[in-house]
Amino acid sequence: MVDRKTMIIKKAIKLFAAKGYHSTSIQEIANACGIAKGTLYNYFSSKEEVMLSILKYYSETIRNEIEKIAKDDSLSPKEAFLKQIHYQLDECVKHRDFIEMQIREYAIPVNEEINDFVFEIRASRLNWLINRLYDVYGKEIEKYSLDLATMISGMIREYLEYIILDKKEFNTEKLSLFLIHRIDDLVLSVKNSDENFLNASDLEEFLKISDEKHAKLNYKVNDIIQKVRKDLSIQRITPEIQNKVIETLEVLEEEWLHKEEPKLVVVEGLVLFLKTLPISGFEHYWEQLDEILQEKKSNIAFKL
Question: What is this structure's pTM?
Fold first, then answer.
């Protein structure tokens, strides 16, 4: 069963694709969902937040499938890479109208949170490409990895623009195979020339910026934990439930903030447990933790 927040996101995707971001109002989204405008504001504070949630929804959907393909032991590294490219091309065809609307309208509103998320997606995409190149061609291409990932990303993006903006009806399976062959050629050519434009320090700087974005997520988590503790002290909650919240927050803090590589399955279980506790007024905190967790999962998954 689709939860209400996901339902709102899906309705908004259709409206934005059909009418455009700027021409669609919050009232129209509420009407399409069959809910009051005030009810919609319980889930999203603004149209910008709806757009950000759509971007996160797309990102998580793609991440889950990419991860699933990567875990298929029946596929060789190159076969998995091919299948992942094919899946992403198909997803762009499926949501072509929405993506075209973003490009033509410059529809992604500018604020710090959206800028940070868009950067994370770009960083994740390049990191994902670099690691897939290592899987397929070996670590000996490390010297050229950022150059290769940059060129491959640009090559795929241009073909996507043919599909999205020029409405070309490409066979995505054939296109994926063609792209893999061109990647083979590109890797061989760069290795033979032994030339690189971007070097290890560029990659380190790029990853450093990405790590700073991760640090921002951890800061947000710590801020939420401290706010929950403060609210616990002034809310009328039974000592038993209060102790459960405090103990869970301590484990969450230890796992998420104090470990270099937190086990996200453990974090996910802790957030899920907090959601099940019979206390009111804290739902927005659990929702915020869940959203940050999904972002972190997305970023880590693309680096695997």
Answer: 0.66
